[in-house]
Amino acid sequence: MSEKKQIRWQLAQEYELNWWKGYRKGLEWYRAFSQEIEDLTKPFLDINQETKILEIGAGPAGALTFLKSNNKYAIDPLEDFFSTKEEWVRFRDPKVRYQKGKGEELPYDEDFFDLIIIDNVLDHCENPMLVLDEMNRVLKKDGIIFFRQNVYNWWGRLMRNIMEVMTIDKGHPFTFGKKDLINHFRSRFWEKKIYREIGFSKTWINDLRKLTVKGFIESLLFITRNRTLFILRKQS
Fold it and tell me: Hey, what's the torsion of the CAs at 211, 173, 170, 216, to 10 degrees?
């Protein structure tokens, strides 16, 4: 990695660490998240005790917390911090193997996982394309990816690129469009099985309703994200 990218990534990690240090809500929402993953992947994957699952950027517990498997792996660059919070450690499923690490350097064998979960992580990374390559390497043929990511239209990407030059949003070095992601998926032969989105208009209205300075500015400048969700299958 270039020194510039590494410095930028470290700045994003500092931002993320400070955000979690100020986090005061519970982790019970992971239960609904786990159920969402199970429901959406069920047509393509039977999650059982033998299913090998990886979550990249798992945070304090992970969406895999309540999935019914004895082979669950979670990796996050901030694991050293998360593991110091007793209430978070108590919440975790002890069957999950938590590890400090990056998506760019996954410490797992090729064709190992049946399911990979990555939820709004790619824009935090040092090298997003290398993360996708590593996911492709460790995922089995016909394996499933639960992939969620905020995307922006052309205007939003332009404005965010300008913001990045000035490092206004320290936590998100990269910005993606929907077509960008789809092209990256196709180049790795990941087949789109399910696609869902919130939509730009709904997010724009929600940002206005938040009554926050950030939400107002983003709405005023039409820097509106669209939360997209893909269920992908690695083709044989």
Answer: -20
Q: Is 15 helix (H, G, I), strand (E, B) or coil?
A: helix
Give the pLDDT of residue 202.
78
The answer to whether 224 and 137 are in contact (CB under 8 A) is: no
CB atoms within 10 A of CB 50: 10
Residue 192 CA to residue 233 CA, distance in Å, equals 7
3-state helix, strand, coil in the chain (%, to 5): 40, 25, 35
| Cα–Cα dist 94/157, whole Å | 40
Closest-CA residue to 48 (of 69, 66, 65, 64): 69
Q: Is the pTM of this model over 0.85?
A: yes
Question: In percent, how much of the chain has pLDDT > 70?
Answer: 93
Q: Which residues pair with 98 in a beta bridge?
A: 74
- DSSP output for 207-221: HHHTT-HHHHHHHHT
Q: What is the pLDDT of residues 90-122, one digit of tens each?
A: 999 999 999 999 999 999 999 999 999 999 999
